[in-house]
Write the structure tokens for this entry.
Amino acid sequence: MSAVRMTRLLFCALLTLKAVPGSPPPANAPTLKKVAEFDLPGPHGKRFDYLTIDADDRYLISAHLAADQTYVIDLATNRVIASITDTPGAEGVEYVPELKKFYTSNAHDNTIGVVDLKQMKVIKKLKTESKPDGSAYAAPFQKLYVSDERGKAEAIVDVTKDEIVKTLHFDSETGMPQYDPVARKVYVNLQDQNIFAVIDPATDEVVGR
């Protein structure tokens, strides 16, 4: 994910465009529209990374990678209600709604942070290999998949125990994973090879590339 090098967060509403591919949009076509703007704490000019939403509480969770903290923002008021400080180099953030927790990929100390939204604090840290980055949650299996980019690995977390239950290794750096709820598979970007590894969450085995 590209860096956002500012401490001001912009919200935009994306309206669907119906046009022939490759043709210019009509003059009256809907466009992106800024709907809100507000300041965030932390030092100016420091890189942000991933965002995720807690739809139940209407919270936006924003990783401020270079400031070593993560923000919980109330979308009803556009106010920061918590700054989670023990998330050094937070890159990926993933929310687990049924447990009211979110997980941060902390690149600066090679850990996965477990944050309890009720307490608004880190309650546990799990040691990974090297530079945890993007993550994906496979809800039916209650497992979190975290790419250890420099470690060329995928850490698999049982979110009911907050334990790493398996680590898969590859011959490539790993990028952002995604869970497909239809195929019930996790796809991991093997970015040095321009292919995807396919993981079956039922067995946590690689079943295709």
Summary: The chain has two domains: 1-12+32-127, 138-209.
